[in-house]
C-alpha cells in the first residue's frame, strides 16, 4: 500500500521563481499535485519581510517547500503560522553540512531556518545541498565565465557540486511520500568532488571557449564583488562561504541522492554538456 500524497493536496512552493522552486513546481504539476507558486513576483504574493500576507499563502495548504529567506529569523514565525493553518509537512532547502559550519559567519540564514523547521511539530525534512552545478550558468559564476575568466577564493579543496535537477527530484520525491522522510536530514552532493579549476576546465572544453580560472584571496574577491556593485556585507558573506569550503569539512561526497531517489546523482560532465549545448557560456 503506497503512502503517496493525495493528488488533491496543495503544495506551497516558496521561492517559486528561483532555481530550485520553479523546478520543484514543474515536477509536482506534472504528477498532478496542485501547486501554489509563491514569491514576491509569483501569482501568490509572498514576501519574507511582510508577514501580513503569509496566512493567505498558507490557507488550505497540506505541504510546503521552503527556500530560506536571505536573513536569519523569519522562518520561526512562518512555521508557527503554518502550524496554525493546518499545514502538515515542510521540506526545507539548506546547505551541505550545516551543522559543521561552527563559528563561520556563513549561512546563519539557513541555520536559523533549520532551527525553526526542525523545532516544529510538523512532519519535516531538510535537504542540505552542496553548491549547485547551475551556479555556473544561472547564478553568481555565470557572468565571469561569459566574460572569459572566473576568479574565486577556492584552491585545492574540491567541491562535490550537485545538479539542481537532482535537488528538485529529491524535493519532489520527499513531497510525494508522506511519512517516509519524516525527521530526516539528507546531505545531497554530486557523485564526485571537483576543484573550481577542474570545473572551469570542463566548461571551457565543452563550450570550446577559452575560459580561465584564477584563485584569489577572500579579501580580493570581496573587493571585486563590491567593485561590481555588491553591498559590503553581502560580498563578505559570499567570500565567507569559500573560507568555509577551504576548511574541507564539506568537501566529501555523500549517498544522499541515492538514499532518496534510488539512483546515482547526475555528473558535472552531464551538466556541462547540456548547458554548453544550450549556449550557456557563449559571449
Ligand atoms: N546556490 C547554491 O549552490 C546553494 C546550495 C545550497 C543551498 N542554497 C540555498 O538555496 C537558497 C536559494 O534557493 P534557490 O537557488 O532555489 O533560489 P534563487 O534562485 O536564489 O531565487 C530566490 C527565490 O526566492 C525569492 N525571494 C527572494 N527574496 C524574497 C523575499 N524577500 N520574500 C519572498 N521570496 C523571496 C525569489 O523570488 P522573487 O524575487 O519573486 O521574490 C526567488 O524565487 C538560499 O537559501 C541558498 O543559501 C544554495
From TrEMBL:
- The highest taxon in the source lineage is Bacteria
Q: Report the InterPro entries cross-referenced here.
A: Ergot_Alk_Oxidoreductase, NAD(P)-bd_dom_sf, NmrA-like
- The signal peptide annotation in the UniProt record is none
What positions does the domain NmrA-like occupy? 114-271
A Pfam family assignment: NmrA
Q: What is this protein called?
A: NmrA family transcriptional regulator
Amino acid at each position: 500500500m503506497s503512502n503517496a500524497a493525495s493528488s488533491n493536496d496543495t503544495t506551497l512552493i516558496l521561492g517559486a521563481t528561483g532555481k530550485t522552486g520553479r523546478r520543484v513546481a514543474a515536477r509536482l504539476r506534472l504528477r498532478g499535485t496542485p501547486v501554489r507558486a509563491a514569491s514576491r513576483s509569483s501569482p501568490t504574493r509572498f514576501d519574507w519581510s511582510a508577514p501580513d500576507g503569509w496566512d493567505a499563502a498558507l490557507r488550505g495548504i497540506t505541504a510546503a517547500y521552503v527556500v530560506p529567506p536571505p536573513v536569519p529569523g523569519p522562518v520561526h514565525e512562518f512555521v508557527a503560522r503554518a502550524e496554525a493553518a493546518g499545514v502538515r509537512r515542510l521540506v526545507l532547502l539548506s546547505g551541505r553540512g550545516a551543522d559543521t559550519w561552527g563559528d563561520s559567519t556563513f549561512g546563519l540564514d539557513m541555520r536559523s531556518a533549520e532551527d525553526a523547521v526542525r523545532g516544529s511539530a510538523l512532519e519535516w525534512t531538510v535537504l542540505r545541498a552542496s553548491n549547485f552545478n547551475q551556479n555556473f550558468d544561472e547564478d553568481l559564476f555565470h557572468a565571469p565565465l561569459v566574460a572569459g575568466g572566473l576568479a574565486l577564493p577556492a584552491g585545492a579543496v574540491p567541491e562535490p557540486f550537485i545538479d539542481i535537477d537532482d535537488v528538485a527530484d529529491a524535493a519532489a520525491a520527499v513531497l510525494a511520500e508522506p511519512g517516509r522522510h519524516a525527521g530526516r536530514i539528507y546531505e545531497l552532493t554530486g557523485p564526485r568532488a571537483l576543484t573550481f579549476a577542474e570545473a572551469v576546465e570542463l566548461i571551457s572544453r565543452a563550450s570550446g571557449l577559452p575560459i580561465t580560472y584564477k584563485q584569489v584571496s577572500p579579501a580580493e574577491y570581496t573587493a571585486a564583488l563590491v567593485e561590481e556593485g555588491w553591498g559590503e556585507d553581502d560580498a563578505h558573506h559570499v567570500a565567507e562561504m569559500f573560507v568555509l569550503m577551504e576548511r574541507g569539512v564539506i568537501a566529501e561526497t555523500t549517498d544522499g541522492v541515492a538514499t532518496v531517489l534510488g539512483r546515482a546523482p547526475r555528473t558535472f560532465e552531464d551538466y556541462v554538456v547540456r548547458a554548453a549545448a544550450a549556449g550557456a557560456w557563449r559571449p
